[in-house]
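Hi everyone,

Forwarding the result from last night's run.
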Amino acid sequence: MQYELLANHLDPTFGNIYDLGVPGNGAQGWTAELRAAASEYLSAGLPSDVLPWLQELSAIGPEHSDEGWTDELIDTYDPGELGWLVRRAAVAAVPSLGELLEGRSDWGVPAEDMKADVATWLDVHATHDQLMELADRVGYVKEASPSSDYELLPDGFDIAEQASPPELLRVWESVTASAVTDLTDSEWDILCSCFPPRRGGGRYRTYELEARRQAFDAVRFKMANSVPWSAVPWRYGKPPMPYFNFRRYARDGLFESLAKSLPVGEDTRRLSQWVNSLADGAADDTKS
């Protein structure tokens, strides 16, 4: 009930809004009194961090955020639909998946409610690639569409079905969080100053440097964690690109070139040690 903002506000006076307007239960939908109470809450009582999400998730976008937007919401949705929409907006406003899960060890009862909240959060905060990697790492495989061989994008509920809350959070953080092995900006600046001339001449383009930094961080992650290339997070590039990049740089002698070009000094000692080990590893890898 934590995220049932509209339902909790209206319940003492009007009862469960999810029962209102449901065929067969004898209850009506919007009454003048219910409409006024809902409109007042949405206009003045809704937390400020929830409002933008409500506008995004509803058919009533930010361009309608004037005095009449609550009337348009109420005209568009019945009480239960609007209650559920406000709940989804409240969930979307939670800053992190860890905060949403609140350290729980299981899904609780009823489990579907918490899984639905996780699904909402993932569906609005995760990118396409993050959802695909998350699904892959929790062991979920979506059946192909009957009309094509294209593997459909899993939704958050599909993913939540495959793991406990601690497992899901651990995998999410591994998919999205920066690793301690990632190059710092100062380390990257030093490496950039030692790159050999760009093929074709001219300065390296921004996207080229970003791709190279991503590739280097992939190698650092693999070496530091002693994991196979398939276990390198997709934020460093979808498999098998991190491995292909490493092989290409090794073949082109980039690591050996950097090892020879890095300046000697206390501030570059650790970076030099890593580059030298990387050059040695690349040489060994190309021989295998």
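The chain is about 60% helix and 0% strand.

Cheers,
N.
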